[in-house]
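Action item from last meeting closed. Structure (308 res):
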């Protein structure tokens, strides 16, 4: 008995990669000429490939101007998605080209933690682990590690990654206190009175507000002279510049305090506050990965907490 085998070949429903590559370059550079130079093609070839892609979608992807092209709304949506995909492809290719013993550790971190606490310490980890290449990205919004497989470890602010398949741990308690430039402190004015005269700086993502702080310390909350930033790093910088007092985690101001650029307001007078605001997460099935174990042990030692 003869059995005829039928093989079904799945074809991805997408245009040719060459066309997408030409589009991404042209949209990113907003120029067919520059895209042609980058891809070592002629401007005519780029223009032809873009036309072919527009025919595929049945949509105009660029507004043609005299010396410039500008993506349409549909073009910008496509560019946003392709940029993320191309970044992943580029990272994957880079990892393959590394030495056999090398590994890439992809970290995603909240911006202020990355800038103010992690980055100053990373050279030590890199020096002690030369076979691990760090790829660091930052963003305020928490990411889904089960969907973003290209990220190995996520460090989030004020939110913890939870759910099946995810392991999370706290990076320890942090002191939250009012800080300001020493130039703003007048020893002849009681600190309680001084608090009513200073501009109050807040980070919009910080759950600790000045309203709560004044209530806890039994003080009247002044209703004027306030300023808000969307990043703790910006709030700390504003305080260093003498704009006012910031209510923030000491973790974000360690260097500024050590250099004498910021001092604690009312030390020994106001009630201390602590909170767990940063959490490290990774996929549970990667817990035995050498690069993840090494990084977790290192960062926990730096943060003064035990590895779970």
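Sequence:
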């Amino acid at each position: 008995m003869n059995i005829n085998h039928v093989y079904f070949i799945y074809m991805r429903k997408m245009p040719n990669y060459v066309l997408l590559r030409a589009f991404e370059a042209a949209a990113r550079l907003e120029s067919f000429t520059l895209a042609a130079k980058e891809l070592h093609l002629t401007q005519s070839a780029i223009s032809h490939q873009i036309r072919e892609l527009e025919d595929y979608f049945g949509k105009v992807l660029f507004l043609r101007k005299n010396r410039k092209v500008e993506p349409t709304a549909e073009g910008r949506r496509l560019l946003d998605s392709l940029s993320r995909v191309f970044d992943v492809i580029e990272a994957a290719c880079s990892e393959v080209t590394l030495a056999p013993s090398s590994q890439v550790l992809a970290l995603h971190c909240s911006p202020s933690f990355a800038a103010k606490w992690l980055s100053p310490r990373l050279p030590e980890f890199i020096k002690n682990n030369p076979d691990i290449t760090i790829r660091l990205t930052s963003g305020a919004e928490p990411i889904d590690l089960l969907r973003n497989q290209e990220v190995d470890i996520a460090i989030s602010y004020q939110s913890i990654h939870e759910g099946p398949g995810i392991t999370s741990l706290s990076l320890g308690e942090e002191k939250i206190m009012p800080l300001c430039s020493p130039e703003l402190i007048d020893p002849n004015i009681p600190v309680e009175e001084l608090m009513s005269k200073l501009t109050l700086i807040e980070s919009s993502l910080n759950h600790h507000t000045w309203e709560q702080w004044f209530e806890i310390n039994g003080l009247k909350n002044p209703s004027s002279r306030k300023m808000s930033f969307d990043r703790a790093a910006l709030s700390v910088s504003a305080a260093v510049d003498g704009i006012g007092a910031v209510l923030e985690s000491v973790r974000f101001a360690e260097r500024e305090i050590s250099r004498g650029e910021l001092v604690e307001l009312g030390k020994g007078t106001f009630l201390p506050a602590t909170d767990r605001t940063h959490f490290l997460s990774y996929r549970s099935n990667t817990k035995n990965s050498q690069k993840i174990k090494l990084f977790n042990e290192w960062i926990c030692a730096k943060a003064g907490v035990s590895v779970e």
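Note appended to the action item: Residues 73-97 form the longest helix (25 residues).
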